[in-house]
Amino acid sequence: MDRKKHQAFVKMFKLFQLGASYFSENYMRAVKKGAYVAEKEILEAAEDRDQPVEVMVRKLLKAINLGALHAAEHMLLFGIDLIEQMKGKSSKK
């Protein structure tokens, strides 16, 4: 591989690493925020200890679903923002 090709490959690989790191940071942040939302809901549901098991399970599943939806919303907003940034860069060229 000649020097120019090698430099181009190294640059492309560094950009890929940066993008993967950026994505994983946002993914972890989304999961943490979703878990926090679910935790609050689960603790609220667990306050009433006299409720039937079926009701508790329903509330638990609802809390987990709400946390997952919160994380998914965060990732969708991240994706939309990323696309907007890419559009901005391509229109400047």
Molecular structure report:
- The chain contains two helices and no strands.
- It is mainly α and 93 residues long.
- The longest helix has 44 residues, at 3-46.
- It has helices spanning 3-46, 53-92.
- The chain has a domain at 28-92.
- The model has no long low-confidence stretch (mean pLDDT 90).
Short précis:
With 93 residues, the chain is mostly helical.
Q: Structural class, from helix and strand content?
A: mainly alpha
Can you give the helix content as a percent range?
over 70%
Distance between the termini: 29 Å
Indicate the proportion of strand residues.
under 5%
Largest sheet: none
Model regions low in confidence, pLDDT < 50 over at least 5 residues: none
Q: Could you say which overall geometry the principal axes of the C-alpha atoms support?
A: elongated
Beta strand count: 0
What is the N-to-C succession of helices and strands?
Answer: HH
**Radius of gyration in whole Å, from Cα?**
21 Å
Mean pLDDT: 90
Give me the number of helical elements.
2
